[in-house]
Structures are given as C-alpha cells and as structure tokens.
Design goal:
With about 80 residues, the protein is mainly β. The chain has 1 helix and 5 strands, in the order αβββββ. The longest helix is centred in the first third of the chain and has 8 residues, at about 5-15.
C-alpha cells in the first residue's frame, strides 16, 4: 500500500482545523477551514487577513478563489 496523499485529501483532513493560506497577490489568510470544492475554492471562518504590508483585518466568514491560492499550511 502506498503512502501517497493527494492534494484534496490534505484539504479534507484539514476541515475544522486552522489553516494559513497564501495567495498569489501576497495576501495571507489564517482561519478555520469549513469546506472546499474540486477547484480548491475554500470557505474559511474566523479569518484574519494580512496584506503585503502586514495590515490585519478580521472577517467572520469568507470564500477564497482556489485559482489564487499559492500555498496552504495546516496548523496543528
């Protein structure tokens, strides 16, 4: 049996957990992953948004466009 983990499987395991998402425009989001689709569009709750100057904004819920996602990190 292979130890290969597919990208969507990583996302599936992260549902309900805090994640960090870096977009291609250098914005960064930290929040709890609520759900996602096959295009890696993600719904986050209790989100902190950081722009490229380090400014922070807090949002209750948001939808991220998967086409703009450069990297995602799960927080343990």
């Amino acid at each position: 049996m292979s130890d290969t983990i597919l990208p969507l499987e990583v996302l599936d395991r992260a549902i309900g957990h805090k994640i960090q998402v870096l977009l291609t425009n250098d914005k960064e989001f930290h929040g709890t992953l609520v759900g996602f689709d096959d295009f890696v569009n993600m719904v986050l709750e209790d989100v902190e948004e950081f722009d490229n100057e380090g400014k922070k904004e807090t949002l209750k819920k948001m939808l991220l466009n998967g086409g703009q996602v450069a990297m995602m990190v799960t927080e343990s």
